[in-house]
Amino acid sequence: MRTARSRTGPLSQLGARRPRAERPHARPVATQPGAARRLFLARVIAAALALIGAWLPASAAHAAGTVTIVDRSPKEDSGRWKLKMTMNYGGMPHLGHIPMLFSFTPTVHYERALTDKSPETPILVRIPLQNQQGINESMDVGFSDSSGKVFAITKFDFVLRRDRGFEAGEYELVIKRASDGVQMGQKQKITLQGDNPVIDRRAIVFSGEKKKKDDKADKAEAEKSDEPAKDEASEGAPAEGAAESEAPVDDAPPAEAPPPVEPKQGGCGCRLSPDEAATPLALPLVALGAAAALARRRRARRA
Fold this sequence. Notes:
By secondary structure, the protein is α+β, with helices and mostly antiparallel strands. The protein contains four helices and eleven strands.
């Protein structure tokens, strides 16, 4: 009976793995000189490329074209500032006139103030501003000429006025298309030069001369107020005299009448009224009547 023998020859070791011999000169990657530095630089470059790739589409989606301002520090002229702009649409616009929204956000206010150190001459104080509400102005920017031909670049003037809320100071300007809100160009800083109204910041104000002027003004006003009263008095005086002259005679106290004369016998038997007796002509008539009555009586006696 045969027994199986283990084969230890070359055929038996065909499927077996041989142990790998150690290389005395091999080193790990981390321990090789300059490997860590190259790995760090590679990671930094990859991160930078990733950020650039993510930023380019976002900037292309939120900004278009360019806007150039000839003078970013215009001077005030009769309460107005004029901005001369050149706008590149970034392509051929689909309309001849594009509605734009101009947003001016104040960042620094120029204040002219009288202080204790400078009580006569106002000094300029730059006051920083934060979280201010922007002043929005709408305007249709034309990219076509009179013939209707459309261009990608245009020049125009934008006028800012004090009656629209603008004052001397510094602003940030952002221009957007009104249709889709896409920003035109980059945010720009603008300085409006001019003189704002003077503000009195003095702790003590000596106003002696002003009081004298105020007293003179009060006297002038008092004289003006007295003039109408005098005119009214002068106008009212003749009216009162006229009223007195036009008053009825009955209201006046009656004049003292002469004592009544008793009629004599054989008279006409008529009596005079008190009014007639009061008149001066009544006395001669009474005397004539009495004389006529006496004459008739004597003739009658003689007959």
